[in-house]
Amino acid sequence: MSDLRASDADRERVAEVLGEALADGRLTMQEHADRTTRVFAARTLGELTGLTLDLSPEEAQPILVDDRPVSVFFGRVRRDGRWVVPVKLPLLALFGTVELDLREAVLQRRHVVLDSMVLAGRVRLLVPEGVRVDITGRTILSTRELRTRPAAEGPTIEIAGTLVLGSVKARAPKRTLRQRVKGRLRR
Q: 95 vs 33, 91, 114, 118, 139, CA distance in Å?
C-alpha cells in the first residue's frame, strides 16, 4: 500500500502540516528544511507518511496508510480524509458505528471488499459519485439504505461478511442545486 504513487496534492498536504509545525515551534528551521526537501522528493505515499508521524496524532495525519482492521465496541470509529483503502478491509462493529468517508480515499483496486462482522452495529459509507456499493454478505434482521450514483464502469465497494441486527447506509454527497437543475435539463 505504501508503494502507491504520491500526487502533488499529497505533497502539499504534508508540506502544510510541516509549515504549521514550524510556526508552532515544534520543528526548528533546519528540521523543517530537511523534511520539506524530502517531501518534494518523495515519490510514494509511504515516503510521505513517515515525515509527520511525530507531529500529530494518527487521526490528524495528512495521509493515512493503514491496513489494520477497523473495529469498534460500543462506540464510534471514523476514517476520513486522504487514506489508502486496502483491497480487503476487515470491519468489526459490535454495538457500535463504523463510518468510512471514501471521497478523498485512494482505492488500491477498482473492486474493494469490506469483510464485515456486524452485531447490532452500523456501517456508514460516504462514497464519491460513480462508486457502486454492493452488499453480498449474509444479513439477518438488518437494514440497508443505498443512495449512491454509480457509473457504468466505476469502482465497486463490496460489503461481504455477516450482519446481524445491523444496518448499512451508503450515500453519495448531496448535489448542489446547480447540479440537480443541470441533470434535469439534460433529460
A: 47, 13, 18, 8, 16
